Amino acid sequence: ITAGDVKDDFHFISENDIYAIGKTAPDDNKVVHWGVTNTDVVTGSFSGFYGFPNRFFDESIVSKEQIVKVTDAQYQSLMEMHNGIPPYGFTRIEYDPPVYGATTPTGIKLGNSAFPGLNNAHPRWAVMAHEQGHNFFGGTSTFYNALADSKPFLQESLAVLSAFFTYHDILQKKSQFGISDSTVNSLNFDFTNERNYQQAQFNSYISQGRNFNIDNVLTSQALDYKMIVYGETYGWQNYKKFSRAFENEILTQFTFQNDGVSSTEQSTYVIAALSATFNQDFRQDFRDLNFPIDDALYNEIHPKIKNYVDAHSIVRLVGPSILQINKEGRWS
After folding, report:
1. pLDDT (tens digit, 9 = 90+) per residue, 196-208?
2. Confidence band (pLDDT; 50, 70, 90) for 150?
3. Among residues 314, 322, 173, 132, which one has the least CA distance to residue 241?
4. Is pLDDT of 13 > 50?
5. Cα–Cα distance for residue pair 87/134, rounded to 1 Å
6. Please, are residues 315 and 322 in contact by the beta-carbon 8 Å criterion?
7. Exposure letters 159-194 (e unless 16+ CB within 10 A, then b)
8. How confident is residue 18, by pLDDT bands cut at 50, 70 and 90?
9. How far, CA to CA in Å, does 146 sit from each of 25, 231, 254?
10. How many Cα atoms within 13 Å fall on the side-chain side of residue 228?
């Protein structure tokens, strides 16, 4: 095995075989050969795993039947978040050893570094939902793609938001999705770690000087954490409204994007969309983080976003329950 074969701290790839050294081997100076035996295809109603070695499922504290129930539920949650508009009808989850997580035109890819054995035997739920989030935003709206402009700021932050939306939606509907209590415990483990990570990155953004840069993932993570806190404070189901602000149909109400979208325009738009969604004015929250805001643009687009998202999805809190009326007048 050569140095070029190293894929992470202790996993190695040589052609179609997988090796390990260090903590997973009986002796730190020896190499263990696992080999690869591809499992049968594991599918549910809305998602399936293709080409994964049996080790992926053997390492998991969650059964393969429950794993695919969760990925089915993630797809359905994102469908609900996006007003029933999907990028594809079925999520194909493919094995690609060198990657961590990636998108494809028909789904996502996971690699060796996303295996449960490297996550205390828990599947990387947040990674899977994150990659699907990229597809649900980027694969359904040219307006979103124009706004995000291939920069991490919106691309990554909205993928992280998507993952957390699925988590909280699944917790609310675990019986409907057929998710067991032990699987919920696994989801709690992974998303607690993910939330702690996003909070740590938010703190790093502050300690490093609050340097806003749409090309820097750390800036997107500052936005991530604020959106997580807003969901926890005001209700996660409101993000169904928020996603409407990135649909193609709202495009005709604006012209600022016609000559390209600047970093200030990206920042102003997402802050206006959050404010419209939650019936708050979050500008000071983000000014405290040195996010640029064009007040003239904000004042122009905020009422248009609010009118659009309110007309297309009205979310009302009724005690602990949430009732939603969509634009066709149906309740859910």
Report:
1. 999 999 999 999 9
2. confident
3. 314
4. no
5. 10
6. yes
7. bbbbbbbbbbbbebebeebebeeebbebbebbbeeb
8. very low
9. 48, 25, 12
10. 23
CA distance 95 to 112: 8
More confident residue, 182 or 41: 182
Please give the average per-residue pLDDT across 266-290, as a whole number. Answer: 98
Structure tokens, 330: 């149906």
What mean pLDDT is reported for the chain?
Answer: 86
- Which pLDDT band holds residue 39 (cuts at 50, 70, 90)? low
Residue type, 322: I
Query: φ, ψ for residue 301 (rounded to 5)?
Result: -90, -25
Distance CA 138, CA 159 (A): 10
pLDDT tops 90 at residue 56: yes
pLDDT of residue 8 exceeding 50: no
pLDDT of residue 312: 74
Three-state secondary structure string covering the chain: CCHHHECCCCEEEECCEEEECHHHCCCCCCCEECCCCECCCEECCCEEEECCEHHHHHCCCCCHHHHHHHHHHHHHHHHHHCCCCCCCCCEEEEECCCCCEEEECCEEEECHHHCHHHCCCCCCHHHHHHHHHHHHHHCCCHHHHHHHCCCHHHHHHHHHHHHHHHHHHHHHCHHHHCCCHHHHHHHHHHHHHHHHHHHHHHHHHHHCCCCCCCCCHHHHHHHHHHHHHHHHHHCHHHHHHHHHCCCHHHHHHCCHHHHCCCHHHHHHHHHHHHHHHHCCCCHHHHHCCCCCCCHHHHHHHHHHHHHHHHHHEEEEEECCEEEEEECCCCEC
Which token pair is 310? Answer: 């309110």
Confidence band (pLDDT; 50, 70, 90) for 93? very high
Q: Reading across the β-sheet that carries 47-50, which strands appear in turn? A: 42-43, 47-50, 91-95, 107-110, 101-104
Residue 192 CA, distance from chain mean position: 14
